[in-house]
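Repro:
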Amino acid sequence: MILKPSIRSNVFTNAHPLGSESFVKNQIEEAQAQPSFEGPRNVLVVGGSSGYGLASRIALAYGAFANTLNVSYESPPKGKRTGTAGWWNNIFFQKHAKETGNVHKDFVGDAFSQTMKKQVADSIRENFGKVDLVVYSIAAGARPNPKTGELVRSSIKPIGNKAMGKTIDIAKRQLKDLTVEPADDAEIQNTVYVMGGSDWQDWMDTLEAEGVLSEGVKTISYTYVGGESTSHIYRSGTIGKAKEDLEDKAQKMHEKLQISLGGEALISSSKAVVTKASVFIPQMPVYVSCLFDTMMRHGVHETALGHKYRLFKDMVYGNKRIVDDVGRLRLDHKEMDFAIQNETSRLMKNITEEKLFGLEGTQMVLRDFYRMNGFAFEEIDYDKPVDMETLSKLKPE
C-alpha cells in the first residue's frame, strides 16, 4: 500500500508507520544526546502515545533510565485504515526502548474507565511494585459519563463573545478566516468534565487506594497560559475553564499527597506547541508560527522533547524551579519573555498570507503537523509501498 497524506478539514485521516518510527527515533536520539539525570525509577504516563506525553515518556526512559507504563486510546490498522499515529508511536517506542534494558509496557484502551485504572494498578503491582511518578497528559475530545452512559464532548469555544481570527488550511497551505461562536453553559461544563482535573484526581485516588504509589511520589499535568493574542479563546474560553479546574485539582491533590505520602502534585505551564486541535483555535496557528520564528531567531526555541527533558531534569527533579504566584512551574518562561512576546505580536500584526508562509516558523509548524502523522521525513520514500500486512501483526506490549 502506498501511503500519501490524507487530510480532511485539517484532520489527518491516515498515518505512515515508517514515518512514525522516524518520529519516535528522532526524539530518542535527541534524548540520548542529553546528559542523564537522577529521577524516578518507575513511571506511569497517562496519555503517552503522542505530543508532550510521548516526549515525557522518552525523556524519562532515556534521561533517568526509568521503567515506564503508558495508557493511551489508539486505533490499530484495519482494512484500508492505517491505524492512528499514536498506535505506531507505541509500537516503535517499544521496539527501540528494548535497548534500555528496562521494563516498558502499554495499555491501549479507555483511560477514563475505572476498569482500566484497576488493570493498570494491578500491572504496577506485578511489574514495578510501586510508581514514583505519574504524568497525566490526556488530550481527549470526549469522555464517557459512567453514571448516565452519555459520551460527553468538549468544545473549544470562547465565552461571552464569538472569537474571530485566522487559521491555516494545512492541505492547501492557505490563510483562512475562522469564526467560533461562544459556548453555552452546558458546553462549558462539558469541557471542564472532559479536559479538567477530575479524571487525574480519580487516577491518583485509585492508585493510592491500591497501594501502588511510593513514598514521596510526584504527579504532574500540563497547562498552558499563553499571551494576549490567544487569551480570548484559550485562557478566557472553555479550555481555560478546564485548565482552571485542572490547576485547582492539583492543589487539592498536593495537600493530600503531602500528608499521606510526603509527595507532591505539580502543574507545569508548557510552551505553545503544534497540536491536532490548534488549527481549530482562531489565531493559534498564526501565533505559533510567528512565535516559533521569533524564538528560533533568538536561539531559544525548544522541541517538545527538549522542553520536557528540561522540565524533569531541571525543575521536577532538579533545583532550577521557576514557580509563579499560584504554584505553577513556568517552563514556558522563554515563550513568555517580554521581548519574545512583543516581537511575536509585532510579527502577527497585519500579517499577510505571503508573509506568513515565507516565515521559517510557519514551515516548521507545517512540517510538525505532517511529522506527527509520519509524513515529511526525508529518509522515507513515500512512493514506496508499505507492507501493511506484516506491520499489522505488530502489537503494543
